[in-house]
Amino acid sequence: MNHAPPPPKMRAVVQDRPGGPDVLRLAETERPTPGPAEILVRVHAAGVNPTDWKTRAKGRFATGATVPFTLGFDVSGVVEAVGLGVTVFQPGDTVFGMPRFPHPAGAYAEYVTAPARHFVHRPERLDHVQAAAVPLAALTAWQALVDTADVQPGQRVLIHAAAGGVGHLAVQIAKARGAYVIGTAREAKHGFLRGLGADELVDHTRQDFAEAVSGVDVVLDGIGAAYWSRSLSTLRPGGTLVSLLPPDETFPAAQARAVGVRAVFLLVEPDRAGLTEIASLVDSGRLRVEVDAVLPLEEAARAHELGEGGRTRGKIVLTVT
Predict the structure, then answer these.
(1) How far is CA 163 from CA 118, 250, 261, 292, 305, in A?
(2) Residue 166 burial (CB count, 10 A)
(3) Domains located in the chain, CATH noted
(4) What is the pTM (predicted TM-score) of this model?
(5) How far apart are CA 89 and CA 37, in angstroms?
(6) What sections of 49-134 are H helices per DSSP?
(7) Is it the case that residue 4 has pLDDT exceeding 80?
(8) What whole-number distance in Å separates Cα of residue 98 and Cα of residue 27?
(9) 3-state secondary structure of 234
């Protein structure tokens, strides 16, 4: 009797239980196969994001998927194969994207499959490491500032944690929209942020931003509850607070309405149109990504340790192939 050959294998970082970075281990797993309207991407680099270490610690994705699983959403790589009906890519194309978010994508691996339209062609200005640092953070900033707040030329935009992964890209996107950009960050990072175009900076460790800033049209907040009410006080009537942290009972939506502003929570999602606009900003030289650390796939645990330390500037990336 003839037997089908065993499925091809690949290296991937897996975790079998909730916990600290030490639960991440390199293993051999089955290589996925693209389904209809999907592509198989050979991953060259994978970005590391706060959602990764939060999911690792809980052992559960926001969608309910539980361990065992492989983390990671940011991908830069080369199309290996295309599924039935795919017309936008062919094998050999160089792509980047944020596939499947918030559902598991498994980017900490040698291969991923995902809907073809969760990817776009990689900007020519970026190598794989730089490209892997972009999608989730840049799409978050884009969907917050452009799709949600509709930032217009001349508006004042306050960006918290401005030197972080989302923040430093948000500064540049807001500037590309013609805004006046105010950022909160430690003083040591002010030079870096001025180089990205920030107009005004507040060292939140030395001064209450709510006392230093007023008349703002948009606040982008990646900190959470400790900043929500104070951020509202900086907004002018008609302004918008976009939180990147899920709301709890302290989220000031009602308080915002009472004073004539809006407070909303944004969860980023795959967005081919937005990622295409981001790629155009990159290729025009108006958006650059800061990569703080580059580590091999087998050092994913170390990457999480660095990220959870909260002092990185820009992004952390894992090299895969």
Answers:
(1) 27, 26, 26, 11, 18
(2) 26
(3) 9-134+289-319 (3.90.180.10), 136-265 (3.40.50.720)
(4) 0.96
(5) 10
(6) 50-58, 128-132
(7) no
(8) 23
(9) helix
Q: Rounded distance, CA 79 to CA 113, Å?
A: 10
The C-alpha R_g of the chain, in whole angstroms, comes to: 20
Instruction: Give the dihedral of Cα atoms 285, 289, 293, 297; nearest 10 deg.
Output: -100
| Residue of 183, 123, 130 whose CA lies nearest to 290 | 130
pLDDT, residue 1, reads: 45
Residue 277's nearest CA partner among 135, 129, 95 is 135
- How many other CB atoms are found less than 10 A from the CB of residue 208? 10
Quick one: pLDDT band at residue 321, thresholds 50, 70, 90? confident
The SS3 assignment for 211 reads helix
- CB–CB of 61/103 below 8 Å? yes
Q: Which element (helix H / strand E) includes 239?
A: strand 235-243
Q: What percent of the chain has pLDDT over 90?
A: 97
- Comparing CA positions, the residue from 265, 268, 267, 263 lying closest to residue 278 is 268
CA atoms within 13 A on the CB side of 234: 28
Q: Rounded to whole angstroms, how far apart are CA atoms 135 and 93?
A: 17
Quick one: residue 34, left, alpha or beta (phi over 0 = left, psi -120 to 50 = alpha)?
beta
Q: Position of tokens 């175009």?
A: 197
In the predicted model, is pLDDT for residue 43 greater than 50? yes
Query: What's the 3-state SS for 146-201?
Result: HHHCCCCCCCEEEECCCCCHHHHHHHHHHHHCCCEEEEECCHHHHHHHHHCCCCEE
Provide φ and ψ at 111, rounded to 5°.
-140, 150
Tokens of 14: 């897996």
